[in-house]
Amino acid sequence: MSGDVCCFAEARRVAIFGGTHGNEMSGIMLVSMWTKNDCEIRRSRVHVEPFISNPRAVEKCARYIDTDLNRAFTEENLSTAGGDELPYEVRRVKEINQIFGPKGSPDAYDVIIDLHNTTSNMGSTLILESSTDHFTLQMVHYIKKAMAPESCMVLLTEHPQLKYSTTRSVAKHAVGFEVGPQPQGVLRSNIFQAMRMIVKHALDFIEMFNSGMEFSACRVEVFRVHERVDYPRDTNGNISAMVHPRLQDCDWEPLNPGDPMFQTFDGRTIVYEGAGPVYPTFINEAAYYEKNLAFIITCRETLSVNSIRKSTK
After folding, report:
1. Strand partners, 307
2. I need a surface site. Which of 3, 5, 91, 122 has the fewest CB within 10 A?
3. Residue 301 forms beta bridges with which residues?
């Protein structure tokens, strides 16, 4: 394991986003609760800002109004001129970038924690966008240990073709919390409480880092996004098969060559024909039907994480 130490400035400004998708209720309710009374998220060395990122979608209990906010933080949208004629979420991109960014600048917030729910059986999942950001890697390592014996998976979305421009990417350090299964527009107390606990551990980590604690080198198991898998379709583009019952609800479990993957409407099984075991997740996610996505295939790997400490500059 590397003996290098990474030094970071204090993470003094942290935002917690709820309602990036307006029908994912745990984050919306937690952020609304903390906006009224922030004692639970208050830390002495951190300014924590709870924030509803897509209020119009929250009002309608819809994923979005015009376009998916969590795919909209592109250079094109950030730099585009224009005003009221732009799609609502593009206007929101510009507002969020002004408040918490600018993206990629020294003035951007130190950390954005973006709260999401999934209809898939993913449990508590931490989503990272970089395998080289040792601050967020140490954060998820801390959260995983604090959550034990409850499992907490780490999804790494770092992929040249499959990367997308997330709401949280405005910050210097971006992390998403995805907790499920929970239907859209519904609250489940166990999912709500799991998300609440993950946020607590994340803020505790940041507070300890800011107070001068050094975090030793470690290893973190991650599941790196590898491939998107669509549903089988007929010649008209209509779905012709469902997720197989033996795959349904089996997020993070190995999918081996020859294992059932889809079941056609007349009962025929379609098997996985890859070269070796992979790990599907976001299986049969309700929000991904519009994205032509049945599940995401990931590959399991272990990352070596450097020690980190607060910069003295």
Report:
1. 5
2. 3
3. 222
Please indicate, yes or no, whether residues 37 and 178 belong to a single structural domain of this protein. yes
Distance CA 223, CA 300 (A): 5
pTM: 0.95
* Residues with catalytic roles: 178
CATH number at 260 reads 2.20.25.160
Q: Provide the CB-side half-sphere exposure for 145 (13 A, CA).
A: 11
**One-letter amino acid for residue 111 of the chain:** V
Determine, yes or no, domain membership for 1. no
Where residue 3 falls among pLDDT bands split at 50, 70, 90?
A: low
- Of the candidates 29, 96, 34, 24, the one whose C-alpha atom is nearest the C-alpha of residue 61 is 24
The pLDDT assigned to 1 comes to: 45
* Percent of the chain's residues with pLDDT above 70: 98
pLDDT at 152 over 90: yes
Q: What is the mean pLDDT of residues 255-270?
A: 97
| Overall size of the chain counted in residues | 313
In this structure, what token pair is assigned to residue 204? Answer: 């505790």
Terminus-to-terminus CA distance in the chain, angstroms?
26
Provide, for the chain, the percentages of residues in helix, strand and coil under a 3-state DSSP scheme, each rounded to the nearest 5: 25, 30, 45
Domain that holds residue 133: 6-222+304-310
Work out the burial of residue 239: count CB atoms within 10 Å of its CB; fewer than 13 is exposed, 13-18 middle, 19 or more buried: middle
What is the domain count for the chain? 2
Tokens of 136: 């967020």
3 state SS of 226:
strand
82 falls within a domain = yes
Summarize the annotated binding site for Zn(2+) as residue ranges: 21, 24, 116
Mean pLDDT of the chain: 95
- Say whether both 151 and 215 belong to one domain: yes
Query: Whose structure tokens read 């946020």?
Result: 199
Question: Side chain identity at 218, as an amino acid letter?
Answer: C
